[in-house]
Input
Amino acid sequence: MKIFKKNSIALSTALFLSMTVSYTAAANVLNLDDLNCLTVSAESELLGSWEYSAENAPDQYKLGALSIFKENGEDNVFVQLDEKEILGKNVRLQGNTISFEVTLEGVQFVVKLSAKGETLTGTYTYADGTFNIKGARVKIM
Output
């Protein structure tokens, strides 16, 4: 009787484990017919924090930081300068390119930027012309 009881417990355990492994393996199989309803949303390389330098800008605006993020499904840019913090307007993020507007001291600036890896490049435009911006991703340790 003892041998039968031990063997039946071992057999039950083995059966349970094999059913669990089979179910897990079956659950991980992807039916190719289901691919039509899958959508993949790739995140932009621009999302995150950046430090930048702006060519031909006054000293107080020459260096700054950007935070590019999504909030409630909308793209946002937060510009941090020496003494000011500004939320960008009319933000358009497409792939690894972003454009937005900011107003400083009553002057409107249109900013267009692109990211490639850890590097940020682009321009800002206002009444006096178009100038270069370059930057790098802020690394969080």
Residues 1-41 have pLDDT under 50 and may be disordered.
